Amino acid sequence: MPEFLNSVYNLIDISVENYIERGFKRLMVSFGCTGGCHRSVYAADALARHVRNKFNVKVELQHIEQNIKETKGF
Length: 74
What we know:
With 74 residues, the chain is mainly alpha-helical. Helix content is 64%, strand content 0%. The two termini are 26 Å apart. It contains three helices and no strands. Helix 1 packs across helix 2.
């Protein structure tokens, strides 16, 4: 996972820098995995933390599958 996340950080850093330079306000990044409860949640949390710390921007984080499972009682 650390190697995967470092690759994600490198890719997303380029996009965030470009968006900031161009004055864009929104960028969406999505992760998915089989159950939506472990790796994708971990990766999303880690990326959100990385982007907040590096770029000092507002990050909205949503765990859609977890929210669905909570409302359906899974």
